[in-house]
Design brief:
By secondary structure, this protein is mainly β. Mean pLDDT is 93; it is low at 67-88. The chain has a single domain (17-344), classed as TolB, C-terminal domain (Neuraminidase, 6 Propeller). The protein has four helices and 26 strands. Helix content is 8%, strand content 41%.
Amino acid sequence: MEIKDKNNPLYNWKLDRSTIQYLGKGLQRPECILTEPNGTVWSADARGGLVRMTHDGEQTIINPKQVDDNSGIPMDKAADEARYITAQGSLPNGVCFDEEGNFIIANWGTNQMERMTREGEMETLLTELNGKPLGKTNFPLRDSKGRIWFTVTTQKEPWNDQINTRLEDGYVALMDENGTRIVAEGFCGTNEIRFDDNEEWLYIVESSAWKISRMRVKPNGDLYDREVFMELPGFPDGFAFDTYGNLWVTLIFTDQLIAITPDREIVTILDDSDPETKKVLFEAYKNQAVTPDILAATQGPTCPWMASLSFGGADMKTVYLGSLRGTRIPFFKSPVAGQKMIHWR
């Protein structure tokens, strides 16, 4: 779709693939990317912790001290994500910073919420809620009040069955001075969440429903007025706003990066999908017959199983892409700066 607003920085802009560069090497499932004002880039890592990277080539893995550095499962031995997590080990997924600069981790492997210091000291924050296990914890987000919001994709195992059943058992929870509570539920494959600039709306990815929803936010953290913000042509996973109000979204499995303009136009920025495997996947999705082998067959060359994006760089115009199957992080320059995360403000 063409952008009608000529003032939009994405108007007539095309990503030159030859300008895509890569950061890091030998990464294991760099699903979530965090950037800092000093140029440091962090990624979640399947060995149980996070990897710290700089653009001058430095790379250090920070793992929980009680976890062996070699406890991760090599990604090249994983046929697909479902098989990859069967070892039931630690598998950091979404990550954010708390007010002290520690990492808040939604652990997809252990189904719990954790806090890890930059030295590797690990603390389990939450394993159950309302007397029941949390489920597949996916993504945490800190707001301007220091509260931690997090999502649970599904409460069923194996998780990938939810793609076919479209079970709406995902939820959003809030950790504040009063404890932890569910503030919204009934989502289909809850994934990443983001606020608008004024934290008036919370945007919620529903991966298995191919849509993004949003809800208004009360000062106490209660959510209301749920609505569908946008139906999407694939499985949304991660997203981020830019300063113009475009919402950049990754479509996992088909490995596409799109943007939703303020006028709710969809613009394709990067398309690494394969027409044949995409057709098979979408047909299986329509018939509620997606299998691990069908998922495993879908993969693009630039950022395999593109899962997230983060803006960084001194001008916030560098876009970093996270993935489930990549071993390095693609990055490129955007014509517009990204919305600054709380830890940048």
